Amino acid sequence: xTLGIQLGIYAITFLSQTDKLNDxxxxxxxxxxxxxxLNWGQTYYARNIVVSVFVTLWAARLGGFLFFRVxxxxxxxxxxxxxxxxxxxxGFFVFQILWVWTVRCTSLTILNSPSVSDPAHGGGxxxxxxxxxxxxxxxxxxxxVIEATADIQKYGFKxxxxxxxxxxxxxIWQIITWWRMYVPFPxxxxxxTHPPISLTPAIRQSSSSAGTKALxxxxxxxxxxxxxxxxxxxLPLSQKPVANKQYLLSYSPLSDHRDDGAAWRAHxxxxxxxxxxxxxxxxxxxxxxxxxxxxxxxxxMSQFDEKRDGHKALQEERKQAEENA
Length: 325
Fold this sequence. Notes:
The protein is an all-alpha fold. 62% of the residues lie in helices and 0% in strands. The protein has 15 helices and no strands. Helix 2 (22-41) packs antiparallel against helix 3.
């Protein structure tokens, strides 16, 4: 199902050269598969229904927002160059297939499998309402509010036509820079919110050996999402590129908004005070020792070094200017 949806949308968007469906299709996969696995497994128990409904709500909200944003913005410039290369563009959809399948294995495929959740098929299903269930619902609700609020606040900020180099430091963004760590999926307990208790407690409620074995496989989902956020689409895209842009605004001789370092100083002031991982008051975070900030994901790999990275950024901009001349 996922393979068919992804390849079909790839063909449609590549032939029509439109990127408006790219993010929507990822969320649509989760929504469709949440409903299908519940229906096909016939595991209509309270825990299974709650998990499937939560995934559906998350996917509908996120997909709807991303689709609205790309329609209002007229497109997504991340795909401009990629869409000129068929194989490179296909890679995005293949990666999205891996994302959907790996994450879905934990909350949907395993949990909604009759061999895991249905006593009639050798599974187990303890009474709904345990401490894990309640904690999962609370954390999912908290994650949903954080994610939706951050999306709305950032969209409102960008829609207000802020000055070049302006930093969004209002609302949720004044206490945390990487709110995607709190994305409320998969429920009951989102793995990127609390890794030690994320190994699908819904499955842990199962007394069957199948559920126990499936639980170990669910570690794959946690590892995949963690690597994705830390090394591919999370920190790498949210930290250094932004710093690179702010540095060039201040010091590039080609910049129309050169301000003798004002934008760069404002950016440094922001990242020194705002936590990446946990929502901490700026007055607290700025006083933490280097070791504590390292634990909170403030790693050298995501930091912009003025001497090394600044020099490289200026060289690349000059080279690009010469090529375009």
